[in-house]
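SEVERITY: medium
COMPONENT: batch folding queue
REPORTER: lab tech (J.R.)

DESCRIPTION
The queue accepted two submissions in a row. Attaching both inputs and their returned structure tokens so the on-call engineer can compare them side by side.

ATTACHMENT 1
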Amino acid sequence: MATKNPKQEAVDSNYEAFKRLLPAIIGVHANQYALMRNGDVVEYFDTAKDAFSAGSKIFEDGLFSVQKVTDSISDLGYYSHAMPNWCTQQ
């Protein structure tokens, strides 16, 4: 049986935690982006780009995810499963 890589495991774990946290945070942080690590929200940002940039700087191992705080839950994965160009530019 194939095992998931550590980044995908972190993304999956954060996503499950996010779904549980959503009812408690939607009222205060709607339409913001949650930077998540180990199933906890580290910080909220106004843009996905800012959240991803902060996560990349803070967590050099890449074990974090970004999730939009919205009523319609969508799995952004490591970041939407397709990294935009700005995510990989230095």
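ATTACHMENT 2
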Amino acid sequence: MNQQQITDFLMGLGNVKPFVASEENGDPEISWGDTFYYIVDPSGRSPKMPFATIVIKDYVGFDEASRLNRGGLFRLNADLGKEGFKELFGHLPAEHEAQSGRFDYSALDTFLPHPVYAQYGWASIINPSEKSASQVKEILLTAHKRALHKAGVK
């Protein structure tokens, strides 16, 4: 799956607003080109936190474990919450620090705990392929449903 296919899938779920960080928007330079997906409630408001993101580069000094700067890579991230995270990885987000050595955060096309936000229930995958597309969609559906619930959108 490419970034456009992911965006198209999310937009098809409804109540989703993508936001691409840019200089024109006054966003920090490090985030330019990254995409953030928010739930939009019926009044047009969005929560402050996205439920999914696509990042296209390492955040030097903060988030480098995925090694996205190898070229041509992106990482899809999704908020699964405690239960979704445990179902996918076999441990709770709060237990992740003790489990983190089990994961190669630079592996391609494999769902992994988010290298920085695992403790909050986030999962990630670098350059998902058609092979993982159905699981990507399931993960995004989970994140979307959670975000709708949190935003009070029915």
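NOTES FROM REPORTER
The mean pLDDT is 95.
No errors were logged for either attachment.
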